[in-house]
Specification:
Pfam families: GGDEF, PAS_9. By secondary structure, the chain is α+β, with helices and mostly antiparallel strands. It contains 10 helices and 12 strands. It has 2 domains: about 20-140, Beta-Lactamase (2-Layer Sandwich), CATH 3.30.450.20; about 145-310, Reverse transcriptase/Diguanylate cyclase domain (Alpha-Beta Plaits, 2-Layer Sandwich). α8 runs antiparallel to α9.
């Protein structure tokens, strides 16, 4: 028995002789039709031992159960997070009912299903039964996640957007201040990219930008973050680095951008990149000052040699 809820979770198979199940569900044609057509998952659960006495067609389809596959088993096994079930039951005890409680259930095949659950008592004399209703919101949760992903990642390259990158730098600042460590921001601006668009078209330009993103990822560490903040401008956040290591990462990036880019039609183009480096705390103590220092260092390269790197203040 669960001390907090009074529900025992030991599965007990339901038998055909169970009078409550027969009388409540099978002999009432209207109730049976309702449970077959309502667009929500329905479970009837015995309070005494937590057995599932009934599951409607919609619940079986959404959760991937065939026939009476869930009947007679405890409902605890359905919950991805046992704490969700405990919190829902506590709310039920305190308020007498639960409405629109967001949680996840697990299908037999391991897939997770997001839903809004409601819980209420079935007011039938002599029966201690709970009605568990479940509305599938998996598609909505996936859409929300996609919206968040698109807001934080560039649609073309999949890299972090400027807004997302700034948030990550703020987090890095907090960690560096707490740990008294250094981190670097590398500002990367492509050279000779505009002629690619002008000569070969924007599809070719997009192809190059996606290749640039892949090369940047190949040049940095797994713990580093790469972002695209403009048409041909990119940034890298590298935490817990020295000047020497930041320069090493930057050198790899410059070398990678000097290699030819082979377009889908076989045409080769060469661009290159100019790069500026700023380190916390020596070149700035906040996001804006560090970004400006890295940007200024990059433009010094851009105005002179191109295809090279510079460290802020040097």
């Amino acid at each position: 028995m669960n001390a907090g809820t009074g529900i025992v979770e030991t599965p007990v198979l339901l038998t055909e002789s169970d009078p409550s199940f027969e009388s409540l569900l099978l002999t009432d044609e209207r109730l049976r039709a309702f449970n077959e057509t309502v667009p929500a998952g329905i479970l009837i659960v015995a309070v005494e031992d937590g057995r599932v006495l009934f599951s409607n067609r919609f619940f079986n389809e959404v959760l991937g159960f065939e026939g009476a596959g869930i009947l007679g088993h405890g409902w605890r096994e359905l919950f991805v997070d046992p704490d969700d079930r405990e919190r829902m039951l506590v709310r039920f005890i305190e308020q007498g009912e639960v409405r629109n409680f967001e949680l996840r259930l697990r299908r037999p095949d391991g897939r997770l299903v997001w839903g809004l659950a409601s819980l209420s008592e079935i007011p039938i004399r002599g029966e201690d039964l709970l009605l568990f209703a479940f509305v599938d919101i998996t598609a909505l949760k996936e859409a929300e996640e996609e919206i968040r992903r698109l807001a934080n990642h560039d649609a073309l390259t999949g890299l972090r957007t400027l807004r997302s990158f700034r948030d990550l730098v703020e987090e890095a600042l907090a960690r560096a201040r707490r740990e008294r460590s250094e981190f670097a921001i590398l500002f990367v601006d492509l050279d000779r990219f505009k002629p690619v668009n002008d000569t070969f078209g924007h599809e070719a330009g997009d192809f190059v930008l996606k290749d640039v993103a892949q090369r940047l990822h190949a040049c940095v560490r797994a713990t580093d973050t790469v972002g695209r903040i403009g048409g041909d401008e990119f940034v890298v956040l590298a935490e817990k680095v020295s000047v020497r290591l930041a320069r090493k990462i930057a050198t790899r990036i410059v070398a990678a951008m000097e290699l030819p880019f082979v377009l889908p039609d076989g045409e080769e183009v060469r661009i290159g990149a100019s790069l500026g480096i700023a380190l916390y705390p020596r070149h700035g103590d906040g996001l804006d000052s560090l970004m400006k220092a890295a940007d200024d260092a990059m433009y010094r390269v851009k105005r002179t040699t191109r295809g090279a790197l510079a460290i802020a203040g040097s």
